[in-house]
Amino acid sequence: MHCPALTTHEALSGVFGSISLAAWIFLLVPQLIENYTQHSAEGISLAFLIVWFIGDITNLAGAIWAGLVPTVIALAVYFCFADLILISQCVYYNALNARKSARSKSIQTANTATDGDNREEEPLLSRRRNSSLGLPGSHSRKSSAASRRRTNSMHRRDSLASIVEEETGSRQWIKNAISIIGIMIVGSAGWAIAWRTGVWRPTPAENGNNGTEVALGATILGYASAVCYLGARIPQIIKNQRDRSCEGLSLLFFILSLVGNATYGAGIIFHSTEKEYFLTNLPWLIGSLGTMVEDAVIFIQFRVFGDGEASAAIV
């Protein structure tokens, strides 16, 4: 099959767009796995997911209104279903853990009441013997020796824990790097196959918006989705700051988001820098580039807070 001639810019636009597509398809998988592994969704803000879901809905409505190609609409539908799956998982784990917590508190309250009753029935002499009998100074010497042993044991455990944590962190970064490289390879290979088979064809930049104007309503929905994408991460950033921890969040989830937004913007810019084309895609550019800044803030929080142990030690 004859393949149309490609300019360098158009080829780069296609590759970046395909990499972005691969990143978006696998975006929610790391967080789904993280929640399943932890059997908890306390680390992720439900408000973040709901606002993001609203952004995907407005994006889908805008794509349908604008009459975009079926593949774009199909992807928008996929994103909405993926959001619903993650939200449902978070609601399930939150409800499940809330019931477990309530049950644990009730059992603890019952045990405390039973211990209090037993304490009242204990003879007074036995309580005194248990509390402070012994030669003067003997209790303090034993306590200090035990305290030193506990301190040394804690130091050894802390050193071992720091070594294990460092090794775990190194392995995690290697896994994340391999995942990103894999996404780039899959995206690039997907574009090459689509081009060679004629599924993907270059669109001349001089055609601007393919000779059609986007409806005003579709443009408004595009800006609405951009606002939702920009605002979605704010509850998550506030939650991380309040908890001083990023425990329960998947770092790869936000790395894939950064890669997807960066390559999406690059694909648009490499395709054309004409004013009409740029303004048509401005809502999506604002949403992509703006969320990259917010993702950078979350990366800083991962670095500063980690899983909460470092911050707890500082406090």
From TrEMBL:
Any single GO CC term annotated in Swiss-Prot or TrEMBL for this entry: lytic vacuole membrane
Catalytic function, reaction form: L-histidine(out) + L-arginine(in) = L-histidine(in) + L-arginine(out)
Annotated localization: Membrane
GO terms (BP aspect): vacuolar transmembrane transport
Family classification: Belongs to the laat-1 family.
Annotated GO MF terms: basic amino acid transmembrane transporter activity
Region of interest (Disordered), ranges: 107-161
Transmembrane annotation, as ranges: 12-33, 45-66, 72-95, 177-194, 214-231, 251-270
Species, as recorded: Delitschia confertaspora ATCC 74209
Record field: compositional bias (Basic residues): 139-154
Keywords annotated in UniProt: Membrane, Transmembrane, Transmembrane helix
Record protein name field: Vacuolar membrane PQ loop repeat protein-like protein
Keyword Calcium: no
Membrane topology field: Multi-pass membrane protein
